[in-house]
């Protein structure tokens, strides 16, 4: 019998605090009515579900989400999909809008301020650790391993980091580390990023994930709030101050990335542009995608709607309901239409003689007969008129719709309405 005591999971004494107030303006019209963390992803989920699921699967049972920009659809999703945590089990889930609780004129001024304004709520739960998360990235990660490194290293802050080729690291906050991954300096978007000691051609880029002991963090937030010159931001103010005056340690994502047997690399995506969003969704249609959504050991929790199964009807030449290399959600009816390498969310109605190829279609869309769509993103609730052709004439597409750098068409209902005016 093994009498060795296993260490108590640190996640039990942690609170995950998700910063979900960002607009995500590079997603253009996709964020006209919703914050970036509320944008749909992967056929069933929203982007924020990944950070929250990571926390839940890691064993963290106290969750808070700070919202700000156009938060209604995000708050509605959280209320519907994340209301299963129970106070009587020492679990909690708080949605924390920018509600001018500290000052009648003050919204959240930055990422650090979004935590500072809710210090009283955090203190009421008394967590020993705080895990600060960005709410707008796609990845699977076990935060328990990062918490363990934080304690073992006796760090003041531990910063989650990606290994990025140096040439690609110029758009990130980059950690310059020593041989033990202690952060020597933090450089925001450097022209010449410092390489890693063991991998000189790679740099350590911040993921916007931070671990603190709660008391230390709250002390830092109060200090920062009293500094009139601060921009109230973790990346610009809090972390650089700790690097200069305390002990900051880098945690490499590869050490805590969760992989199923079918996932080879450490998967992390910022789906912050039209092209990146389209590519990450379409990649899921691959035979063996880089991101495994079918991993039962690390489920992505979300609002599970009660919907009937998808349905495919008609079996005539030229009018056959079919989908190849595609993901089709529930309550979709593919009626004599052909889909190829596409991802279709809940509630679609795709009518006869139409075709979709490399299309990401958000919920509740209707496609009229004889429409042919290629390399496009269709926003929520759009009605595609009969006979519309997209993806064959780039000049015509650019006049009617939003076209990305790589030629992906983003189509909204407002754009469709303008066609008939």
TrEMBL record:
It comes from the Bacteria. Residues 17-285 form the Nucleotidyl transferase domain. Its EC number is 2.7.7.27. GO terms for molecular function: ATP binding; glucose-1-phosphate adenylyltransferase activity. Residues 308-411 form the Glucose-1-phosphate adenylyltransferase/Bifunctional protein GlmU-like C-terminal hexapeptide domain. Keywords: ATP-binding, Carbohydrate metabolism, Glycogen biosynthesis, Glycogen metabolism, Nucleotide-binding, Nucleotidyltransferase, Transferase. The record marks 68, 107 as: Could play a key role in the communication between the regulatory and the substrate sites. One of its GO terms (biological process) is glycogen biosynthetic process. PANTHER family: GLUCOSE-1-PHOSPHATE ADENYLYLTRANSFERASE, GLUCOSE-1-PHOSPHATE ADENYLYLTRANSFERASE-RELATED. This is Glucose-1-phosphate adenylyltransferase.
């Amino acid at each position: 019998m093994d009498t060795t005591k296993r260490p108590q999971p640190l996640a039990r004494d942690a609170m995950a605090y998700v910063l979900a107030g960002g607009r995500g303006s590079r997603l253009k019209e996709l964020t006209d009515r919703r914050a970036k963390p509320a944008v749909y992803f992967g056929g069933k989920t929203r982007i924020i579900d990944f950070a929250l699921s990571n926390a839940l699967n890691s064993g963290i049972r106290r969750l808070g989400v700070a919202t700000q920009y156009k938060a209604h659809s995000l708050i509605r999703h959280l209320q519907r999909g994340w209301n299963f945590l129970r106070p009587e089990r020492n679990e909690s889930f708080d949605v924390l809008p920018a509600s001018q609780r500290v000052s009648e004129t003050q919204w959240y001024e930055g990422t650090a301020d979004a935590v500072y304004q809710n210090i009283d709520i955090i203190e009421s739960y008394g967590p020993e650790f705080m895990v600060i998360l960005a709410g707008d990235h796609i990845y699977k990660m076990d935060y328990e391993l990062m918490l363990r490194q934080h304690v073992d290293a006796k760090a003041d802050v531990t910063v989650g980091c990606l290994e990025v080729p140096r040439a690609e690291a110029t758009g990130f906050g980059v950690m310059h580390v020593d041989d033990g991954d202690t952060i020597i300096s933090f450089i925001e978007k450097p022209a010449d990023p410092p390489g890693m000691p063991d991998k000189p051609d790679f740099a350590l880029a911040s993921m916007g994930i931070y671990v603190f002991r709660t008391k230390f963090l709250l002390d830092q937030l109060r200090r920062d709030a009293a500094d009139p010159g601060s921009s109230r931001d973790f990346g610009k103010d809090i972390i650089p101050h700790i690097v200069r005056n305390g002990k900051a340690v880098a945690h490499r994502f590869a050490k805590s990335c969760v992989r199923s047997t079918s996932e080879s690399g450490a998967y992390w995506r910022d789906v912050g542009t039209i092209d990146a969003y389209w590519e990450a969704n379409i990649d899921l249609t691959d035979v063996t995608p880089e991101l495994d959504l079918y991993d039962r050991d690390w489920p992505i929790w979300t609002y599970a709607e009660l919907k009937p199964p998808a349905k495919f009807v008609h079996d005539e030449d030229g009018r056959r309901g079919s989908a190849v290399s595609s993901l089709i959600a529930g309550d979709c009816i593919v009626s004599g239409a052909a889909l190829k390498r596409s991802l279709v969310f809940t509630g679609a109605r795709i009518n006869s003689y139409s075709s979709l190829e490399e299309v990401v279609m958000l919920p509740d869309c209707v496609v009229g007969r004889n429409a042919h769509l290629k390399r496009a993103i269709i926003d929520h609730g759009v009605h595609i008129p009969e006979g519309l052709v997209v993806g064959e004439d780039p000049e015509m597409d650019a006049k009617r719709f939003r076209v990305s750098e790589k030629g992906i068409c983003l189509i909204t209902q407002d754009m469709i309405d303008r066609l008939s005016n």
